[in-house]
Amino acid sequence: MSCLWWSFGIMSSATTIGFLVLYLVAFTTSSQIVLNSGWSLSNANATIGLTELSLPSGVYTALQNAGLTGSVLHSYNDVNLRWIALDNWTYFLNFSG
Predict the structure, then answer these.
(1) Distances (CA, A) of 16 to 8, 22, 26
(2) pLDDT tens digit string along 16-59?
(3) Cα separation of 10 and 66, whole Å?
(4) Beta carbons within 8 Å of 6's beta carbon, 6+ residues apart
(5) In what order do the strands lie in the sheet with 49-54?
């Protein structure tokens, strides 16, 4: 908030009041939707589905964190985990606004 007030210091007082009213109306009458958590991930044929994921994330990381795969950097996993790259993956989130 202090940065907001500082940026208004170089404007005229009428502009400052206008921006302040706009700021208060915009942030007191709107609701916020959190989009960085609660995501789900599934592959094309829905044989693998993960829920309650947080973003940012990647498919390899999500599968490893769920215990379905090992690290892609370990041994020959770059070859053993190629099936992940050959499948289609979808992140999705249901929300209401």
Answers:
(1) 6, 10, 15
(2) 454 554 455 555 556 778 888 899 999 999 999 999 999 888 99
(3) 51
(4) none
(5) 49-54, 37-43, 89-92
